[in-house]
Amino acid sequence: MAKKGEILSQYTKDLISKNRTKDKKKCQFCENQYVDLQKHHDKCPKNPENKERLRIERNQKRKKNKVRINLLQNIATAKRMQIPEKREHRQKKQHDNNQKPEVKKQKNQKRKISRPIKDQERTNCLFFILGGYKCVKCGFHDHRAMERDHINDDGYLDNERFPDDRGRDLHYVYHPEEARKKLQVLCSNCNKIKKHNKEQKDRSQKNNTTSQEKVWRNNQELKQKAHQILGGNICCIKKCGFHDHRAMDKEHIHGGGSKDKEKSNTWVVNNPEKAREKLQMMCRNCNVIKQHVSDNGECNCEKFHVNYF
Fold first, then answer.
1. What is the mean pLDDT for each group of 10 consecutive residues in the chain (309 residues)?
2. Residue ranges of the domains in the chain?
3. Alpha helices, DSSP H only, in 100-233?
């Protein structure tokens, strides 16, 4: 079709003029005028010869549709027949479980036993890929205080990729080359020191106001005073002897730190005698190992000292 304003060639002009000048003939069935009557006669619905052919085609289509509808109805009825059987089977299971509460207990016990074993096997495999339970920086080799650390500090990307820690560990177990490029093994002390250094670097790059710097300095002074009251920046365990202030924690002597929240630096400075009775200074490695040995949040010092030393 020619567009408006388009310049036409002489050939197209001749074709248009021929089509206009062609004689149109009238159909004897539908009384409309057409150039090619033979094509129209084959498709004309009022032609008696075409009526029979079109009727046969319509009947064939109807038969196909009926067959398809019957199949769908049969499938639907079969599903309906299956639903009550499923309900009865489910009700029997519920009835049996209610009659036998020991079945539920056995299932829960099996789950509690099997899940931590599988998790431990997965972590062991991942640490074996990364070089074993040994810190890359200080050489500490107690498996209870080892952590997986991201070399380039891009752990937030893994939190977006994977729903939980199990999925992340499984991915790195199946992709060991990627794990060696991204992850490394650090002890809890070295990991905390690394985070502390990163926070200081980020703080130096920011343009903090004078009020923010005053608050930060006051908090640092309070922290130093609290540490001096509790014995200084030295781990309370003599055989450990760790003395870096960046990896020190205030730790409850007799356990129960989750319930007791009187642990802030201001409380320690205001109540030094009570603080010495409840709290002590401990490095992060010893703190993690003590939590690993504790019995349901309660301290078990004898077990801790025997297993650690």
1. 64 73 74 75 76 82 82 71 60 63 70 80 90 89 89 87 87 90 92 90 81 86 88 83 86 71 77 85 87 64 54
2. 118-196, 220-308
3. 101-130, 155-161, 165-174, 176-182, 188-205, 210-229
